[in-house]
């Protein structure tokens, strides 16, 4: 195919790459000339991404259910979590809550918080494990 001649419709049907002719304006940087990407790779990429999201959602749901059913009652555990979140939001986040309840170093930063249960003779007691850049602490 001569790049100085207009492409024939049969060239497009066969998937032949059409290059811009040299007498047109400079090539557009947003247009890529070449064969199209295979569709099967795109579908597999989408399928893998959806599988990943599905696995994350399932893991999150399982963790929430385990967290709620570990306590003495599901509703009591749910209300306890809601109260903790309300307290954290009211105080400006978990880091503010952490610094208010513990003596901290001036540059100490909270890394993560974890829901946890302490096993007692009367049953599990809900708590929050705070992990800072200095040491883990339990409340």
From TrEMBL:
Stretches for region Disordered: 1-35
Database matches in InterPro entries: GEM-like (IPR037848), PH-like_dom_sf (IPR011993)
Gene3D superfamilies reported for this sequence: Pleckstrin-homology domain (PH domain)/Phosphotyrosine-binding domain (PTB)
Protein name: Uncharacterized protein
Organism of derivation: Deinandra increscens subsp. villosa
